[in-house]
Task: structure prediction
Amino acid sequence: MSRSRRRTKLRNDDDEDGSASSTMLTETATGWHVLKVEGYSEINGLGVARRLKSCPFVVGGHTWCIAYFPDGLTEDTADCISFALRLEDRCAGTGREAVMVRTTFSLLDVAGGPVPSFTVPCGVWTFSRIGQSCCHARFMERKEFESSYVKDDEFCIRCDVTVLSAGARPPPDLRRQLGDLLASGDGADVTLEVGGESFRAHKNVLAARSPVFKAEFFGGQHREKVAASVSIHGIEPRVFSAMLHFIYTDSLPDIDDGDRTAMAQHLLVAADRYGIERLKSICEYVLCSFVHASAVVTTLVLAEQHGCHQLKEACFKVLKSSANYKQLVVGKTFNIWQALALSSPRAAWT
Result:
């Protein structure tokens, strides 16, 4: 006996890094078939990998059958009973297109209901050719099966089949939407004054991304009295604009190649100030790729001040590889070098 029905359900394959590579599995048809085996004692001992097949049934336009292996599918599973779903024929017009199926095998009790402990989902399988099977080799040990579930020399097994189709899913657009929100200023509830320029923003977004902003806007006893305009000092407007862009979109705006290193240095300082660890890590990575002998001492100082271990290691590597490293610390950088040597003895090696 078999029944089928149609419904649609999306499988959520969330991609945390925002990648556009994602799929959607849609249930195009769902059905089930019950195999009733009578005269169990007569077929027991059929032989390993020898099977009995159910009557064919149709789900999603494809023809299927249940295969039953009374003596196991392989020598390793000879002490078990095994079941499989087998593709007997394809839906007309599908050619060689693969068929994706979600399958569950359920042993039925005497009342016809599934036995919970032996209702076994087999996940999603892809059938690429006629005759291919989705197997459950160790469904149950034969001794337990015979002692508990074979009644009057018969039993019933049910196979639920859901045919799926795969298609492209639109890429996540949360970053774009938040970027548009920042650009439009819709719903903004705070104005940030930076170096003579004003930036409209949303306290909730800023607080969600920065523990410093969170403490400033929502951490005090008088948080409801936080001004609608906040002045920020010690940061250039263009640097703050880039940091704000990152806060909303988790990405950096386009930066000219000639300004990349300087911007990365300024953003690293700003990210450290506002506790935006991911931005700080990105800036550190960029700077590690652009450590030059001409600025290695100032870069090392920056790394030391802001706890950037990888950047410090990159600076030490440049210093070690320089035959005239002592000349790198003369002139206006000498005092910087001396201060660094006090806080980081490793820098003072000779």
About this structure: The longest strand covers residues 23-38. The chain has a mean pLDDT of 81. Residues 265 and 283 are 7 Å apart (CA to CA).
